[in-house]
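User: Can you recover a sequence for this backbone? Please restate the input before giving your answer.

Assistant: Of course. Working from this structure:
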């Protein structure tokens, strides 16, 4: 039962720097990369990637993309490109930014902010990181951004349930979607926590979204009176006939073939097609 196709998108890793070091982070495959600069070469790369297609969505990621000093101009360059449709920014939200900064990004064409929140009440709620996340969330909500909160199912069921209950309270105040993701480094325990959450909150599938030809699948769950809704993103391990056949890492590859990530290494642009490998069959020079 597929209800919708997720529109094609490309992830641009605009920096390898991050102010955190989360043990569940897959680091988009590799963080030993350069910062992207929105120069003529950057535009040329977008032109190449979008030739032959009508339009595509862009996800700006890292590392922590707010650590790239050119982030405002990068958003603007994407916005001005005729083939780019929507622009999302994926951040840990822990670097406190001003209202003017978020307003500039919005005016430059940013549509959506995806923030990862993995704190749980009583453990990290009052840390500076979490205080900054809430301050940023307040500004994003006030400015009318589309907001998604990503959260990983890890540790144990109680930990994740408490975290989710907190997020559901915050959702009422700041109006965002919640996406629960599995931990690729502890897949069985993580997925079992997610299935237990679905049972605990008596959730039923409402819609399924899939990106054709990739392992990107997201399922919207809702309870009976629709007072609780969240999305689940569980790896379902689609393997590309072109890149994954005969791959030695297939048995332990929990993301599967997800799609393109663009990065710069030693001054050269690459299209990364796989989290787990670093050879030139899956890292294509652009
Ligand atoms: S490791 Fe990469 S190439 Fe191998 S099966 Fe997984 S996604 Fe495919």
């Amino acid at each position: 039962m597929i209800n919708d196709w997720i529109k094609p998108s490309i992830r641009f890793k605009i920096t390898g720097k991050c102010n955190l070091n989360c043990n569940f982070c897959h680091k988009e495959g590799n963080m030993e990369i350069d910062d992207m600069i929105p120069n003529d070469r950057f535009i040329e790369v977008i032109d190449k990637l979008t030739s032959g297609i009508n339009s595509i969505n862009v996800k700006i990621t890292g590392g922590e993309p707010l650590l790239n000093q050119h982030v405002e101009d990068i958003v603007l360059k994407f916005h001005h490109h005729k083939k780019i449709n929507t622009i999302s920014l994926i951040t840990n939200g822990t670097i406190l930014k001003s209202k003017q900064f978020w307003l500039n990004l919005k005016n430059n064409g940013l549509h959506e902010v995806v923030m990862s929140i993995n704190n749980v009440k009583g453990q990290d709620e009052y840390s500076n990181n979490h205080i900054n996340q809430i301050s940023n969330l307040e500004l994003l909500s006030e400015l009318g951004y589309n907001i998604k909160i990503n959260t990983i199912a890890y540790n144990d069921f109680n930990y994740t349930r408490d975290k989710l209950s907190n997020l559901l309270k915050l959702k009422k105040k700041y109006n965002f979607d919640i996406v629960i993701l599995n931990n690729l480094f502890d897949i069985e325990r993580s997925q079992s926590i997610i299935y237990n959450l679905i049972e605990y909150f008596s959730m039923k599938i409402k819609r399924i979204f899939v990106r054709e030809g990739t392992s990107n699948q997201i399922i919207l769950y809702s309870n009976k009176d629709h007072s609780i809704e969240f999305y689940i993103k569980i790896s379902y391990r689609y393997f590309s006939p072109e890149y994954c056949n005969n791959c030695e890492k297939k048995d332990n590859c929990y993301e599967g073939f997800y799609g393109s990530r663009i990065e710069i290494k030693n001054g050269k642009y690459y299209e990364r097609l796989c989290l787990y490998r670093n050879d030139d069959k899956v890292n294509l020079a652009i």
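That completes the design. Residues 239, 243-244, 247, 249-250, 253, 256-257, 274, 276-277, 282 surround iron/sulfur cluster (CB under 6 Å).
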